[in-house]
Amino acid sequence: MLVKIEQIKETGLQLNEPIGLGLLGDVLGGAASGEDTGFRATKPSTLKASLRKVSGGVLLEGQFTAHLASECKRCLGNVELNLPVSFTLNLVPESLAKGEDFQDDDEGSMEKKERVQGESGGSFSMEDADEEVFDGKTIDLDPIVREQLLLALPMSAVCREDCQGLCPQCGINRNEAKCNCELKPVDPRLAPLKNIKLSN
Ligand SMILES: [Zn+2]
Ligand SMILES: [Zn+2]
Q1: pTM
Q2: Separation of 174 CA from ligand 1 center, angstroms?
Q3: pLDDT tens profile 136-157
Q4: What are the boundaries of each domain within the chain?
Q5: Which residues surround ligand 1, an ion (CB under 5 A)?
């Protein structure tokens, strides 16, 4: 998904770009790649993006819904979720990001650090948007989609908020069946906890 800078007119550029299962699979990992996020894509998505030229770069607003499946962390059952991903990025051309007075020695890199800190301090006009550097000519949306999807992924999924999970003793799925493990005598040290009344 490449956008050339000259495609962005005065009025901006609106895009509806398909995000294929291949790209989504690369991000989420699995058998083919080294890392596995525990999620897999069930359908392709569509990236709705808006690009506008602003002073110092390009403002990119994007959103898509990732259709994902995973394993419930409690009962190991199947979980399907539609994860909304939305982001605003300020794309800065390499030449501007480096700064004209950048020198490739120790002193120079210290100056650069100070400059970056100054920008995040408040004088920077696009402070709400994260910065992303591009070569000034072509914007590749694929790595942006990858990164934003990873940022949006939950740590883990549950099939429902009140999922009872598997019994740690006999392994039965407590959403589907009851086992007798609960009937075992309560540890006397924990018995007082049984008398605590929950306020609902
Ligand atoms: Zn579950
Ligand atoms: Zn049990």
Answers
A1: 0.71
A2: 9
A3: 999 999 999 999 999 999 988 9
A4: 2-195
A5: 72, 74-75, 77, 159, 163
